Each structure stands twice: as structure tokens, then as C-alpha cells.
Amino acid sequence: GMPLRVAQRLPVYLRHLRELSEMGVERISSAELGALIGVTSSQLKQDLSYIGGFGQQGYGFRVDDLYEKLSQVLGLDQRCKLILVGAGNLGKALVNYDGFRRLGYHFVAIFDNDPATIGSRVGVMEVQHVDELPNYLRSYRVDIGVLTVPETVAQEVAETMVENGIKAIWSFAPVQLRLPGHVLVEHLHLSDSLMSLAFRLHYRRQQ
Amino acid sequence: GMPLRVAQRLPVYLRHLRELSEMGVERISSAELGALIGVTSSQLKQDLSYIGGFGQQGYGFRVDDLYEKLSQVLGLDQRCKLILVGAGNLGKALVNYDGFRRLGYHFVAIFDNDPATIGSRVGVMEVQHVDELPNYLRSYRVDIGVLTVPETVAQEVAETMVENGIKAIWSFAPVQLRLPGHVLVEHLHLSDSLMSLAFRLHYRRQQ
Ligand SMILES: NC(=O)c1ccc[n+]([C@@H]2O[C@H](COP(=O)([O-])OP(=O)(O)OC[C@H]3O[C@@H](n4cnc5c(N)ncnc54)[C@H](O)[C@@H]3O)[C@@H](O)[C@H]2O)c1
Ligand SMILES: NC(=O)c1ccc[n+]([C@@H]2O[C@H](COP(=O)([O-])OP(=O)(O)OC[C@H]3O[C@@H](n4cnc5c(N)ncnc54)[C@H](O)[C@@H]3O)[C@@H](O)[C@H]2O)c1
Fold first, then answer.
1. What is the distance between the alpha carbons of residues A14 and A95, in angstroms, rounded to a whole number?
2. Which of A15, A127, A132, B27 is most buried, by the most CB atoms less than 10 A from its CB?
């Protein structure tokens, strides 16, 4: 398969290309674009070979063409359907965020097990009981399962998702999930990000 | 200064060491630990040189000793004080998350400009008007400013933080902040994470 790091860099290239396009930049060399995100020109070209070998046209790339191509490949023009389990603080923030919708990622159903939450509205959806999850997944096509339940139940909820056909999970729970090899998992560890900032600050203060 | 990537990897080592310790593993070689996070043994040793050159003791490292040392360096034993601006969906989720508190990161004040939000309780704090931010920062020591306001106002709020002494910002707003070189910024782009997962899924389906 493709190296995880490539998959992690492509959205970053996309974001920089969007900004360059908004600033009216028409062309950029692989060295310049690589420098924006911290990779060598040859690493960048190697990364781009995964999107169908986008060739350089004269001096570097045409920003808008590469942006277009990357958007397609990153699925920005396809409706990507997400379900979410764990309609708590973080879950509600994610479902209410229209930034994801603008990129083509749509929440189609939300589940929880707390009677106080079930039946309440989040965005345009009503929270359903998590016991309905297997039925839902067997009736409707879903691309990604988002896991925002407490760490104590993350493993079992992830297993329910996978047993009912989910092949990709976006998890915020601070546990290592143990799932079959064919399941793609993306862990977002918010605390890693905060810790690395705190460390950089601490290190700088010691200089 | 230190390379950003090192600062980003150290919390990941920490997380793996905690898990190893919980599983009762006493020693690990630099090659094994590196493999857990996807770096070579020599990269790992280079990374560890930033925490005061933690030496290998016989076969590899003692897991608990390295975990201890990394925790100190990542500030887990120090109260790190955070303020947050933008007490909306995401801001409230972050303030209410006790995972950060357990790691030693404490929110000390929250600010917003919405009359409907100001004065309401989030966690144990009352949301203050963002006009109070300069006074607050000049009266109390704060380590990190967390930015969870809409992208349209992110730059101006970040500037207010910096003008009043904040040296490190954790930003969730999808804009490139333009700040003086001495300010450390950690952008958490949730959409990058989701996009990389969607791409891996798309790529796999095409195989
Ligand atoms: N809030 C943050 O900023 C943050 C940061 C890092 C990690 N996390 C992680 O994200 C997850 C969610 O955090 P949160 O702050 O939203 O917590 P929360 O307690 O507000 O939300 C958890 C939700 O999951 C529901 N739930 C519990 N068991 C369930 C089950 N078996 N099936 C379905 N739903 C169930 C609860 O009823 C609740 O609504 C946690 O694993 C947390 O460790 C959160
Ligand atoms: N919610 C998510 O999952 C998510 C994901 C990715 C990025 N983000 C980004 O995080 C930020 C917050 O997202 P959200 O979903 O919590 O939005 P939100 O609209 O729920 O919260 C924004 C808050 O900022 C406050 N605010 C606006 N202008 C202000 C000012 N000048 N001073 C102080 N407070 C001000 C608003 O009153 C509101 O309470 C946004 O930049 C968003 O793009 C959010």
C-alpha cells in the first residue's frame, strides 16, 4: 500500500496550493512547494507519483492545475459519508463544523447511548441509540466512522463499526485500537499536538 | 532551535512508552521503539539527544526511566497554564476535556465576544469578554493561548494575545497566522487528518 506519511502530506500540499492560488501565484517549482511544507523537491515528486504522476510543465507546476488534481484525488468532489458515535462535547463540535461539509465530508447519522442525548438534535440530525448502529450500517452506505466515545468503550464501539462494514475509522479516543488489518485507522491525538507545543516552549525558555 | 519534527515525535514516544509500561515491558531497544513510531534507531537516538542524551543501559532503554525522563521534559509535572479565546463548540470541548488536566495542562480563563456566551459557565470558569484579555494577560502568567475563534477573526485575536505577552499559540482556525518570529504556533488542522484518511480509503478502493 502507500506510505502513511504520503497520505498525511497530500492534504498539506492542498492547503498550501489553495493559499497560493488565492494569492494569485500561477506557478511554483517542486523545490519551492516542498520548502513550504518541509520536504525536498525529490520527496515531493515522489509523493505526487501517487496521484498519477502530475508532471511539471516548464518551470514547476501550474498551481491551479495541481490544486484541481489534488482535490479530485483527495475526494473533495465526492460526497464522503460519515457516521459519528459519541455525541458528547467533541462529537457535537465535529458534527456542527461546516468546514468539513465544504470539503465534501457529510455526517449522515449520529449515535450515543445516553438517554439524555438520544433524540436531541445535533445539526440537522437526531441522535440515535447506538443499538441502531448495526441496522443503519447494513442499510446505508457509509465511508468513514468517527469515534468520539470515552476511551473505556472505544474498542468495543470500533469493533461494532467494523463488524458491520466500516473500513475506515477516525478516532479521537486515546487508546490503541486493535482491529483487522484491512481497516484503516486515523488517530487524532489532540494531546500530542499540545504537548509538542509545550515542549517547544519549555525548550526555548531553557535556551 | 530544535527541528519541529522532533518536538512532534517526543509526545508519540511518550504515549508508546506509557503503553509499554502498562503492559509490563521493562526494556526496549532503540530499534524496537523506533519501529513502533516509524523512525530508524539512529533517528530515535538523535531525537533523544534533545532531552539530555538519555543513554542506553545495557540492552536498550529501561522503559520506566525513559518514560519518567520524557514526562519531565514534556512538562507533565509542571502546571502549564492555558487561556482559550472562542468558547464555541470546539472551545468548550477542549476546556471540558479532563485528559489535558491529567497531563498537567490547565485552562485558567476563557474569553468570547458573544453576549449569549459571556457569563456562562464552562467547566469551573465563567466566560469573560474578550476585551478583558489584555488586562488578564498583564495580570497573570499564562503559558499557552488556545485559538478557537472563527477564521475571519483568528489573525486579530492572535495579535492581541501576542501584544500582551503570549509566546505560544495553539490554533484550530484554518488560516496561516502571520506573527513575529519569536512566537511558537502549533496549528491543528483537523481537516488534514480527515482528508488523509479519506485519501487512503479512496486509494485502497482503487487497488
Ligand atoms: N474533548 C476533547 O477536547 C478531547 C481531546 C482529546 C481526546 N478526546 C477524546 O475524545 C473522546 C470524546 O471526548 P469528549 O470530551 O467529547 O467526551 P464526552 O464525555 O463529552 O462524550 C462522550 C460521549 O460518548 C457517549 N458514549 C459513552 N459510551 C458510549 C457507547 N457505548 N456508545 C455510544 N456512545 C457512548 C457519551 O454518552 C457521551 O455523549 C474521548 O475518548 C476523549 O478521550 C477528547
Ligand atoms: N468544530 C470543529 O470540529 C472544527 C474543526 C476544524 C477547525 N475548526 C476551527 O476551530 C474554530 C472554532 O470552531 P467552532 O466549531 O468551535 O466554531 P464556533 O462558531 O462554535 O465557535 C467560535 C466562537 O468564537 C467566538 N468569537 C467570534 N469572534 C470572536 C472574537 N473576536 N473574540 C472572541 N471570541 C469570538 C464566537 O462567539 C464563538 O463562541 C474555527 O476557526 C473553525 O474553523 C473547528
1. 23
2. A127
